[in-house]
């Protein structure tokens, strides 16, 4: 059973979209991360135009983040003060990202930029995660304790920069400058690649600012909700690339898959989580790298950039 996507301008199987989004939702529930960083490249592999894939997944990420934000808010595990700093920087990064996205689209280089960005980002992050997971596994097998990244009571230099603020709920007293810069980068990446950025933001807040994980996840979801909603609106207004029919199907399948993934997560070891996630990220990056090396079936294109139309 197929349905026509008016913005993507192609027919697609409803069962395929539901199955794909369900599988990504399962992985999201299994690993506790947003699925946008997997969903966007998978849609591109299904011949969805990159501009439509990025903008539509931004809408799906915003919708799926809403339930998480409400859940953590009820648990009082959301720092709105820290979240406001992250949102302020994220909005700036989102605006810059959409402007960059539109300029690359007008020049006809958007697909190349997205592909190179995914190869670079996934290779770097996946490589770090794989190294960290293997090192931890080898130390456990050798009977050695896992080393702490930093001794208690010590703080890195970036936390002592000017404009220090005390975030009571996050047990943090640090400069807002590095936090805002991190949020700008996450917002920019999210707008260009259609990812929530939680798989970068959560480890950064935990390892670089030593914020309790229970607070980090809810606060990260709050930032993702606001920035991805803004990115969706900007994409819809400036380049009309949000396909709401596709977004609804993705959201439906993702919600169902996440429920099963959350249940399956109880039966897996934490170290296995990290190793499998690292391999998954590296495999997607490798798939994009292969695409760069394979000659296109049509070396010339008759589609003109938007600036020439």
TrEMBL record:
The keyword Cell membrane applies. The chain crosses the membrane at residues 12-39, 51-73, 85-104, 110-131, 175-208, 215-238, 244-261, 273-294. InterPro entries: TM_pro_TauE-like, TSUP/Inactive_protease-like. It is a multi-pass membrane protein. It holds the Pfam family TauE. One of its GO terms (cellular component) is plasma membrane. It is found in: Cell membrane; Membrane. It comes from the Bacteria. This is Probable membrane transporter protein. Keywords: Cell membrane, Membrane, Transmembrane, Transmembrane helix. Its main location: membrane. Coiled coil: none annotated. Belongs to the 4-toluene sulfonate uptake permease (TSUP) (TC 2.A.102) family.
């Amino acid at each position: 059973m197929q349905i026509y996507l008016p913005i993507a301008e192609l027919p697609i199987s409803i069962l395929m979209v539901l199955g794909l989004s369900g599988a990504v939702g399962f992985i999201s529930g299994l690993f506790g991360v947003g699925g946008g960083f997997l969903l966007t490249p998978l849609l591109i592999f299904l011949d969805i135009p990159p501009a439509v894939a990025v903008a539509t997944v931004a809408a799906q990420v915003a919708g799926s983040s809403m339930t998480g934000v409400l859940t953590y808010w009820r648990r009082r595990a959301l720092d709105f003060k820290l979240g406001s700093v992250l949102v302020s920087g994220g909005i700036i990064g989102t605006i810059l990202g959409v402007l960059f996205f539109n300029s690359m689209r007008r020049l006809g280089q958007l697909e190349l930029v997205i592909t190179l960005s995914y190869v670079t980002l996934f290779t770097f992050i996946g490589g770090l995660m794989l190294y960290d997971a293997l090192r931890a596994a080898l130390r456990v097998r050798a009977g050695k304790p896992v080393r702490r990244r930093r001794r208690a009571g010590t703080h890195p230099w970036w936390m002592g920069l000017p404009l220090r603020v005390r975030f009571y709920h996050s047990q943090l007293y640090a400069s807002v400058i590095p936090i805002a810069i991190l949020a700008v980068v996450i917002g920019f990446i999210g707008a260009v690649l259609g990812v929530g950025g939680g798989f970068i933001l959560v480890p950064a807040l935990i390892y670089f600012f030593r914020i309790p994980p229970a607070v980090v996840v809810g606060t990260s979801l709050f930032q993702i909700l606001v920035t991805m909603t803004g990115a969706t609106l900007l994409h819809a207004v400036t380049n009309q690339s949000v396909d709401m029919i596709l977004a609804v199907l993705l959201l439906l399948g993702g919600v169902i898959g996440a429920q099963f993934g959350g249940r399956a997560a109880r039966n897996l070891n934490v170290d296995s989580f990290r190793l499998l996630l690292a391999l998954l990220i590296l495999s997607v990056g490798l798939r994009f790298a292969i695409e760069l090396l394979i000659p296109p079936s049509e070396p010339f294109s008759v589609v003109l950039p938007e600036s020439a139309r």
